[in-house]
Structure formats: structure tokens, C-alpha cells
Amino acid sequence: MADTSIPSAGPVDAAIIEDLVAASRILAQHGVLDAWGHVSIRHPKNPERYLLSRARAPALVSAEDIMEFDLNSDPVDQQGRRMFLERYIHGEAYRARPDVNAVVHSHSPTVIPFSVTGQPLKAISHIASFLANGCPCFEIRDVGLTQGLLVTNNKQGAALAKTLGDNPVALMRGHGNLVVAPDIQRAVHRALYTEVNARQLATALSFNRPITYVAPDEASDPKRLIDSWEVWKTQAMKDA
Amino acid sequence: MADTSIPSAGPVDAAIIEDLVAASRILAQHGVLDAWGHVSIRHPKNPERYLLSRARAPALVSAEDIMEFDLNSDPVDQQGRRMFLERYIHGEAYRARPDVNAVVHSHSPTVIPFSVTGQPLKAISHIASFLANGCPCFEIRDVGLTQGLLVTNNKQGAALAKTLGDNPVALMRGHGNLVVAPDIQRAVHRALYTEVNARQLATALSFNRPITYVAPDEASDPKRLIDSWEVWKTQAMKDA
Amino acid sequence: MADTSIPSAGPVDAAIIEDLVAASRILAQHGVLDAWGHVSIRHPKNPERYLLSRARAPALVSAEDIMEFDLNSDPVDQQGRRMFLERYIHGEAYRARPDVNAVVHSHSPTVIPFSVTGQPLKAISHIASFLANGCPCFEIRDVGLTQGLLVTNNKQGAALAKTLGDNPVALMRGHGNLVVAPDIQRAVHRALYTEVNARQLATALSFNRPITYVAPDEASDPKRLIDSWEVWKTQAMKDA
Amino acid sequence: MADTSIPSAGPVDAAIIEDLVAASRILAQHGVLDAWGHVSIRHPKNPERYLLSRARAPALVSAEDIMEFDLNSDPVDQQGRRMFLERYIHGEAYRARPDVNAVVHSHSPTVIPFSVTGQPLKAISHIASFLANGCPCFEIRDVGLTQGLLVTNNKQGAALAKTLGDNPVALMRGHGNLVVAPDIQRAVHRALYTEVNARQLATALSFNRPITYVAPDEASDPKRLIDSWEVWKTQAMKDA
User: Fold this and answer.
1) What's the pTM value of the predicted model, to 2 decimals?
2) Min distance D130 CA to chain C CA atoms (Å)
3) Cα D82 from Cα D69, distance rounded (Å)
4) What was the ipTM of the complex prediction?
């Protein structure tokens, strides 16, 4: 029972868990998460722990599914639950980025074409201005051949976090992306508008004209209120 | 309490407010407005006032959210409510255009690629024939660097209104658009079909063939009945 | 009361009217008809009459809205109801084509780009094989300048029917299309798959490779059972 | 009563039938199946039999619609039910491929453009890595002219199965595709992500840059758990 040797950081407010559940459902409802992908938050009481659902489709996640992990992505109390194979993405992102309190991993559909072509994914819309500096692309083959391009251990997770660097988003070649933020609302915003901006940029590119990207000095205040949370959560939790 | 020094233009018929609420919800339901964007009308009793929701996602706006503003975009009676940062877009459009009684500001998704490429957005469909003369594009950088490309004061709002000129629609680079009309039904029509026409034109452009745009002398009667209001409102208010 | 001088061809089975109502709602649900557009059938008892809704959005049409017209598109008994301005499209199609018993006029969204570029719209999918010979495009300007590109009299309707010729579909430049068929089920099928085929062909064209169109000798039996009617009608009438 | 001469392989667990029904509805809900297309499974007790709905739109299929066929696609007990004309696709796939226990035939919309251009459809996303070796395209004209491009006899079905070879997916020119898998969950996964990958690849191709496809040695373990079944089935059976 090696798992039980990791002490819990303690109970978490129901409202915080509710927002984590909402985040999964919001991104599923908006088509950013498909039957896979996952959203986590750093434990509010201990930066060495994070909270993530057991392996379950994002649209179905509920409060009872949330588990606690340490930064090695070992569970505090597994209780026999099946875990996401790729939880190491989260653990290593929290380890590498003390400023990050929420992480999304998705198969964001329109991100894939950018990830396999080297076409830079940069902001053309102010709502996506967190992408004003573009986003790096993680080539998992650089850390060795993997079946299914999956990140399934800490070494691969750390390599991805290294590619991410100080950025809010890293593409993952042939796979999707990693999105990080200081809070869950901002993580959802970034995951959603990375997809929207990718769709818009694909259209802009089709015009074969020079594109005016959002300049870094035009980017939104990164601490700006995420006032869209009310509508996203209301609509996503309607049937919950 | 400086706000209270602005006298109200008086109560407004519930049916008029209901149409304003419906306008928000229609444009949200059709994907023209996302979690942001806003619709306003000029006050029916005083051209120096306009009516706009407190800061709230368009899909959630209800009659109780509607506030009254003067053309400086100062509130008549704020009551502590949070206001849209970009309400100046509305105030200055009403000031510059006495013929305008309804204003929409949106992040209309397919408008963005046109706004960052200089690709002219002109009507190819008769339902969008209000765009027969194309639409100007507002470059906010011309009035100084702004964080997030937002229009947050009267000076910027006036510059946008100046770019708009006599047109029904102005694009806003990397941001969205401004749509004006003599009434709320027409404003919704124009906001919706600017988006639809943008999608259709993007497809037409992909064929790499000469395009026959709607000629200015083929444009619809601008006073034509907006007989689509019944279905738009019925469908948008179903869950309200 | 000139209208009352046109004798009615008599009552029509409720099941036939129900299918006409369903046709409107099916095409609205599938995005072929927007807030406008209309579906009609020839009167089962008199080929000189046809049945069409009063002016109302297709998604809202119900049995009570159906009116009877002669082939001049004059109403048998108007009862003060507002009529579609473009009903002449229907009357003249029935006059020119004795084999036609159902007519759709739509703003089918992906048809517009084909209508303004001369890019031929031909079948690449067997479900759209009624388009194996392509479809002609009606240029309304050839019969004189019109405001809004609308077909609002018999002369224009007859010119459109002449462009249609023996084909099942004619595009209308900058406007939409005209779809005709021997029965209502087939008219719905053709209207729907003209749109689907247009979307698929736009994608195929983007590959810049030679395209294998469905050859005329590969076209489906035009009398083939429309076995999709059950599911289309069930889904469209769910909320009715 | 020739039909009754084919003995049944016996009753099938309700849970297995339920998954077959769910498969139809899942693929309809995700837009892979339109009003046509079909999903079958090999009979769990006799490899010479398979189970397929009577001719009915996939979104409406329920347990009572499931019929039993032999590998010639003759029904065990027709009971006057109308059968899919193209059931031979299933019978011949089961005959040619002993490893296959589930078959989907669809008009997957974005597959059509690939099928008529020769543009290779290969995996760019790890979820579609079953397409790492691409998929062959069946030209029905090679086995003689057919009306409607339909596969309506065993000879045509066998020719399609021959084109399929050892692959999980074969395109059918101007028609759709054939998807096979060792179980129903995997067949649904493959049918769905063939469509998703086609959409993503069309976008990637539009960038006019070299594309990094998923390499065959990067493909997912073909026996990997289909853990998406819970969410797909839950959502598809909600209204059933």
C-alpha cells in the first residue's frame, strides 16, 4: 500500500471542487475537450499536491471523481480508482511552474493542424492575446519513441514542461496542447480561446495576405477579471 | 454621488426592454456574441440617453440588468452595478450618428480574419446587402497603444465612430466589429449576416476565381420589414 | 375582393399538409433554410394550384399557415394574411415543369459561394447524384435591375424557371437556390444534399487536385425510395 | 420461405444488443452517420452470422430492429422487414476478415473529399493513429458500372473487402467508407476519428507546409482500452 504513505493536504472547499468540475464540463461543452483530456488545480493548502479527476470523460466528471496527487503524480489515496495515464503532464507542470495553479491537457481539434506543420499559432484576436508571443511545440520523439504519442511518465512530463518554459500554452505534436494559468478560470479561458484563435487564424491564412498579429505590447492585462465564468459555468452545469 | 446628477429620461415600455434582452440572446444563440459583446438601444424618450445591460454575458442578460447611460457613457443610476468597460463604443456611436437607434459590439468570429488581413468584407449575398459598399476597419493603434485592444474611453469611442462614418458596420482590427442600425431588429439582422456573409466570402475566396459582389444598386430597401424577428426571438427566449 | 374569384381546388388530407409542414421544419433544423425560404407542393387535386405557407419563418410554420395559390401566385382566399414576396418562384416553376410537385427556395449557405464565382456545383457524392449534370446559375440582372435580388413577379419567376430548364436545382446568384422534385420527400432530400455536397466540394477543391465527380451514368435511380423521411420528420417535429 | 432455412445462431445478450444500438446512435449524434449508414457486429456465438438493424435511420435504431444474417447477407428470419440494400458490405467484410467483429459503413462527410481526389487520408493525430498507414480507396467502377455507386451484391462486397485488405478503414469513392474492428467500441472509435482526422488534415493541408504524419511506429496499442465508451453511450442514449 505504497500509496497510503503520501499524506493528504486536507479537505478542499466544495466551491473550489465545483469550479474544477465546471471547468471540465465547460471545455467539453465547447468542444475543446473530447472524450479525453483533463483539467486540474493545485491544492489550495499545499503546493506539492494537485487535484484531478479519476480517469473519466470530462463531460461526466463530478465532485466524487476528484482525486489528490503529489507532484510525482502518485495518488494520495487511490481507492482502486483508474487514473489518467497522462497525469504526469500535470505533476511536472506544477513542479516546473510555481506560478501555475491550474492545468488543462486537451486534444483541442484545430490545434492539431498547427502542431504538425510548424505553422506558428499566434494571437490574431485580443481575447487570445495570451498567445501574443506564440506557443512552442513539443516533439515527444525527442525524448524517445512512444506508442500513441502519450506522456505517461515523469521524464516525458518534465520534457514537456521544459518545452512550455514560461509560456501559457505548448502544442504537443500530433496530440493536442498543454495550457497553464494562475487560476482555473484563466486556464479555461486560455484553453477555449487557443482553439477559437486557431480556427480564426486558419481562415486568415487562407486569404494569402500579410497578417497583423496582436503585438506583445497590446496584450491584455494578464490579471484581468475573467467575467465570462458565470455564463460558461451556468450553461455547462445546466444538466449536471 | 456624481452619477445621480444625470437625470433619467424616464421609464421604458416593457416590450421595448424585452426586445433589447431578446437581441442579446439571439446573437448569443447564433454565435455572433460569445461570453462578451453587447447590444444597446437609444432611449425612446431622449436621444441623449441609451440603454445597455450591466456587465453580464449576453446569453444571461434579462430585463433587470438594463441600465441607462448618457452619451458620455456615464450611468444615470449605477446602484453599484459593474458596467461594461467598452460602453463608450455605444455612447460615441449615438453621438456621431443621429440616425442610429441601436448598436451592437461583437467578437463575431469570422469577422476577425478579415480585420487582420485587409481582405475586404463585402456582400456576396442579398441578405447582407447592407455591406454592398464594404466596411471600414478601425485600427485602434492609430489613437495610441492600448492594452487588450479595448475601447475604454470616449476618445477611443469617438475615433471608432469616425472610422464608421456613414456605414452600418465597422471592423475593429483583432477585436470584432461595431454594427449600427435605425432599430434593434435591423441591428440584429446586420450583426448576424455580417458573420454569415464573412463565412460565405471566406469559402468563395478559397475558389480563387473572380467574385461577383452584390452591387450597391442591387442592395435591399434599407427600410424593408425585418420579418425574421418572430423566429429569432421565439427560439432565443425559449429557455428564458 | 379579386382574390375570392379564384376557386379552391378543395381540401387536402391532413397527412399531406403535415408533410409539407415537416419539410419546412426539417430544412430549418438542418440549416438549409434560415429565417426565410419556403417549401411548397402542387395541389394534389388540381395541377393549377399550389400550397405554400403564409409569410412566416420555416421553423415556425404549422398547418394553419398553409395557403392555396394559383399558378399566377394569386391567393385563393387571402384572409388578410401576409404572403411571401417571392412566391412567384413557385408558381412559375409549377407552370414550366408539369413533372414537378414540390418546390423549395432557400438561402442554402454554402451554395452562395458557388453562385457568385461560377465554380461549377456538381455531385461528388452519390447521395447528391441528382447534381451529376451540375446546375445552372440564374443571373437576375439579365431580366433587369432588382432591389435585393428578389424574385417578386411572374416575369422574374418565369426567367428563373427558364434557367432551371430540366434540372432539379438552379443556383440564384448572390441569393440561394431553387430546388424542384416530383414529391416533397425528394425536394427535401435534394435541398439538403445540395448544401452538403457544396460543403464537401469546397473542401475537395481546397486540395488542388483533379476531382472525380459522380458521372451521369452513375446517378441513383431518381425513383429510389426516400427512406430517410422517417428520421428527418421525427427529429424535426419533436418540439412541434 | 427460403429464409427460414438458415438456422439462427441463437439469442444474444441484451447488453450486447444495447451496445450495438448505442453504436448507431453515437455515430449519428456525432454526425458520422447521416440518415443512412449502418453498424453491425459478428454474432458472438457463430462467426458465420452477423447482426444488423433492419433498414432504418441509425438515430432511430432500437433493439427490436436488430436482425440476424448469414455471411451471404441472407436473413435468418426476415419477418417481412425491409433490409439495407448494402448489407453485403458487412457480410463480405466478415467473410474476408476473421479478426473483425464489428463493421461500420458510413457517408462520413469529410471523408468524401479525400475519396474523390486521391489526397491520402493518413493520421495526423494520435487518436487516429489506426490510420498511420493510410487507407485504400475503393473504386466501384472497377467492378462494373453501378447506379448510385451502391454495393448491393456479394460480388461488389467482396471487391470492397479485397480493397480493404488488412486495413481498418477503406474509403469508397464518392460514397463514404468501410470501417472494421475487433469489437464494437473500437469500430465506433475508428469511424468517429476517421472523420475528425479528415477535418484536421484538410485544415493542415490548407497551410501549404510539409506535414508530420503519425509514424507507424508511433501508433497506439491497438488493444488499448476504449475508455470513451461511457461518455459516448451516455450522451447518445439520453433521449432513447
Assistant:
1) 0.97
2) 23
3) 13
4) 0.96
